[in-house]
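PROTOCOL LOG
Step 1. Enter all chains and additional molecules of the complex.
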Amino acid sequence: MSKTLFDKVWDKHVVRKIEGGPDVLFIDRHLIHEVTSPVAFLGLKTRGIKVLYPERTFATADHNTPTINQHLPVADPLSANQLKALEANSKEYGISHWGLGHQKNGIVHVVGPEYGITQPGATIVCGDSHTSTHGAFGAIAFGIGTSEVEMVLSTQCIMQPKPKKMRITINGTLSRGVTPKDVALFIISKLTTSGATGYFVEYAGEVFEKMSMEGRMTVCNLSIEMGARGGMIAPDETTFNYIQGREFTPKGEAWDKAMEYWKTLKTDADAVFDKELVYNASEIEPMITYGTNPGMGIGISNQIPDAEQVEGGVETYEKSLNYMGFNEGDSMIGKPVDYVFVGSCTNGRIEDFRAFASVVKGRQKAENVTVWLVPGSHIVESQIKEEGILDILTEAGFTLRQPGCSACLAMNDDKIPAGKYAVSTSNRNFEGRQGPGSRTMLASPLVAAAAAVTGKVTDPRELMEELVG
Amino acid sequence: MAYDKFNILKSSAVPLSIENVDTDQIIPARFLKATERVGFGDNLFRDWRYNPDNTPKPDFVLNNPTYSGKILVGGKNFGSGSSREHAAWAVYDYGFRAVVSSFFADIFKNNCLNIGVLPVQVSPEFLDKIFKAIAADPKTALEINLPAQTITLTSTGEQESFDISSYKKENMMNGFDDIDYLQNIKSEIQEFATHLPL
Ligand code: SF4
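Step 2. Run joint prediction.
Step 3. Record the structure below.
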């Protein structure tokens, strides 16, 4: 029978099917961090059980970590306590631990691929919803709750009903200034934040085929924001080139064998999806959000829609605009910006900093904005230095922070103050997500850069034109 | 972690007629710093419930003594956002045993089922009726019958049935969790692992 890419990977990992219930799914790789794991380890202790395959779990500290002065003790005692618990638990159960200060430390979804832990055809889970990032490699990857973290630690399995399948195809060529982030925000604006709930998405078509691994990770990362369990892209030469030679990828004969298998990982020509959506690349322009969920996004040159034009309750919509201090019909261009945040597992990779630098080069940081540039990992940090990007940033008046989740969820000190506006490259603009009372506009690194040098919401294409012309 | 068995729950309900209630509202990230599962109920809907100086916001429904009960009724797409099980813990710890909505986000729903909170998905029309009934009489009771898979508005007798997999239903009715199940098939899992490509 014809199968989709998703079917092929899922079916290979089903240990047992339960009548009238979920599948018992084997998990190849498990990533953990300090926030969603401690209670799972407590559960193991209470039940008196061990970690079944410690070599399949990897721990990194990221959600809670400071992004300056990482060599100093962590000031917040609660954060310090979680970091210590992760270290102690990893040690006790024999799990690799990349804690604060470790050379491999970084955001869990950035370091996984960097070290080759993420591989095509794998099942990957983590107690963080943006685990969907790893689907860029043709893996089935999704976020889980703490009870499930405990299941994976103790039995390397979780119990999941098989999701439905959706394919989103985009053909054509992206216009200038349109990045993978815009592609994702565009899809979410069409689908809403619940449009793909119950589905696992496969992205297909020229746009994704031509996209870099970094770009594919950005798109798959945001699958969860349309409600999907995860998203994936069939592995191809771009994928294989990216993973070859990384620390945890197979070598020699094992590589050849793996390649043979990986090349079979694509959707059969006549396989059937439960839902198919098709867009054209030319429909997409640089995007920005105006509301309090990632589905409330528009092309940057557009006006905020009227309540009647959007799906859902008028009351909820008005509450959202009220929170943002925006009105129906407002133009987004020229909106005030107090903070700019570039980072997170959505846009904290080298390509994102290259894009940011391409716009700010030869310009100066606007005086009214505070800018936090946070690399996703130490590898990204070194690349920024080696490629001369840091020099460009420094000349333009910016500084670079140290790796971590930072203002993506504002669990550490990187909080946007109440009432302030931030243009952020992260993934959620929920009320208070970036700090109590903070107001977030999600956008690409290019839009972030334009805001950082002009001090307000600006179409990056104008600045790019100036540079070219 | 074991939880109380769920059978028939008859209770008044707390209405929260907002759509897309996300997990950052249910429990803001700054309250995720515990290493034990205690006290999350105090911070349920923290920023909707309290002012920055920790005084209660009188117009938020949890601060309104008119409404109480073990059932939370939410608008469409309840629980979207992060995978933090802390959101489900906060709901449970506050004293809710069931959440009713016309649509749930996936991971939140899963997390609820894993810790003993029953997500009850009803039609948009029935949800509307529930909101109206509570508005008319805040003490009106809902009856959720898990064995029969029905939810009833006791004031009018109107009823709808809801979906749950027979496996999860059995778990909820007995207070079992998935780890118990998985532990019992460990040797089968280990055998399976030897045949995997990765
Ligand atoms: S950067 Fe944000 S979304 Fe990504 S892992 Fe960290 S907290 Fe989660």
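Step 4. Note key features.
Chain A has 17 helices and 18 strands.
The two ends of chain A are 55 Å apart (CA to CA).
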